[in-house]
Amino acid sequence: MSPTKKDIGVTAEEKEAVKAWRREVQAARKGKASPADGENDVLAAIAAMAPADRAIAERVHRLVKAAAPELVSRTWYGMPAYAKDDKVICFFQNAGKFKARYSTLGFSDKARLDDGNMWPSSFALTEIGPAEEKRITALVKQAVG
Description:
Layout (H helix, E strand, L loop, with lengths): L11 H18 L5 H13 L3 H17 L4 E5 L2 E6 L2 E7 L9 E5 L14 E4 L4 H15 L1
Helix pairs in contact: 3-4
């Protein structure tokens, strides 16, 4: 798709993510967002993923919830996310979301991952084995600090 004055190169996937974010904000403003709703929204977002992405997302979800039970599940731009005090700490972006080569576990600027003047804030995931489980668990625990 070539950019025009009306469409400056934003993909359909990016447009849908912004629409999802708007729905999330509107629900929160109307007081329609509860922790149970957030968990259901995350589980629905995971269920809608392609099988390979879904398998990774399900494991990430279990690991995050076990490592930091105080985090509240919610969607963020339509993606599974985990928040503390209404601030997203980490999120999962499946590969299919933006037709990427790999899924991503990302951390917002609210995450306490600081390490000097430079540190990673997102991690590519192609599959999850014992080493990745251990790393994800440690990162989530550090992020909520």
